Amino acid sequence: MKAETLTLVLVNLAGIMERADESLLPGVYKEVGAALHTDPTGLGSLTLFRSIVQSACYPIAAYLAVRHNRAHVIALGAFLWAAATFLVAFSSFFQVAISRALNGIGLAIVGPAIQSLVADSTDDSNRGMAFGWLQLTSNLGSVIGGFIAVLIAPITFIGIPGWRIAFHLVGLISIIVGTLVYLFANDPHFSDSGAKSSNQMSNRTLWSEVKGLVLEAKSVVKIPSFQIIVAQGVTGSFPWSALSFAPMWLELIGFSHKKTAFLIAMFVIATSVGGLFGGRMGDFLSTRLPNSGRIILAQISSASAIPLAAILLLVLPDDPSTGVMHGLVLIIVGFCISWNAPAANNPIFAEIVPEKSRTSVYALDRSFESILSSFAPPAVGILAQHVYGYKPIRKGASESEEIATDRENALSLAKALYTAIGIPMALCCFIYSFLYFTYPKDRERAQMEALIESEMRELLSDTMPEGGDHSQSQPFELEEPYIKDRTIIEVDYEDEVDLDPDENDEKPILYASRHSL
């Protein structure tokens, strides 16, 4: 097996375990709530603690990915989240909250490294498909984590509750995957030995590297298309975070653990196939409509969530006998609302920044989006309890009273879920509209920067003596003054350029070179 293929396989395995770890707690909310004596608001706060720490650590991910082998960074993240997952399985509520917060550190440093590796290994014509496959394999991790958690939750082994065993199991597998990634995965930006790359990086002080990353982050944040995608991502990721209550909602309706696990698995599989479809269609439309194809597809996906979620949460009866209907609607919803990231967001990010800035753009995106979307689970809990009338089952209630209370709570939770899905998705669809004006200009600006970097690289290679210490495996890095200046490159796209040669004017030469790529 080729090194590149093996690396992609191992990176996708790491993505599987990352999502499996994230889906563990939502899959056993009901059991954890009973064991730790907490309500939906408290359960949502556990995810909030992890997400806040995760958001704060994304800049660390960008720094590590620039200075170190990204395969090793992914392995380190797997070891960290595995250790935190083991701690959760031994803990009380307070200790669970601390452990989930620590878990966010490991998860934070893995995601941007995985995404940038995928972006570096593809081009504009197949990048959407590659991210679609990444979404499919990552969602497989959600199926594994959620399925294992829900199925093992009601079991007790040697006096240990099943939900705690599920955490132990995922932690153990994560250690194995992290070890494989560390030993066999390869970062194309580093040589086989890593010696030249390490020596080149060691010439710069820690402060200069941090300063360079800050300047790079500032240049990325100033890109209008980045700002728009982050804005829609904040609203668009809110519903996905809110859906962590979906297993609890299905169980309150009356579905058994096995049926709930099956329905959630069908939903996640549908989102996986939908992501693959969205990525392929995004690539297709980008060749037919290069300035708008990806954006149109993303708007169709986000807009479809509003009526489909209403049918699922508000129209279908709260009756466990309607499992087939619930499953069918969950499949349709999952397939249609999962196109945004592989079809538009991730490919566009790779097109509007230089290659060496890709880890930074993915890290910053995750950081900004996670900050607000992390409030979705607590928001759903607060809405369900204080707006829509969710009531805990009173002590000593009969079985019939418990069933009646569960049905009422299912309706309250469904209303809270739809509030957290419908409104943010409408805003998400609207915000995408601004990309029609900024994306073409930002893409061409990035192409111009790539052209300038290429010309400077050629000039340096021509002036370097033979046998010089220049690593071809390490990407070309510009000096800090250029990083400052490159954010103010202005390209007039509307004025017609005069292509008549003029020995005193270099603009026609640059223009012709750019369009000959």
UniProtKB/TrEMBL annotation:
Main location: membrane
Keyword Mitochondrion: no
N-terminal signal peptide: none
UniProt-annotated stretches for the region Disordered: 494-517
Transmembrane region(s): 73-94, 100-119, 140-160, 166-185, 261-282, 294-316, 323-341, 416-439
Keyword Transmembrane: yes
UniProt-recorded name of the protein: Major facilitator superfamily (MFS) profile domain-containing protein
GO cellular component, one term: membrane
Family: Belongs to the major facilitator superfamily. Spinster (TC 2.A.1.49) family.
Stored PROSITE patterns: MFS
Membrane topology: Multi-pass membrane protein
Listed GO MF terms: transmembrane transporter activity
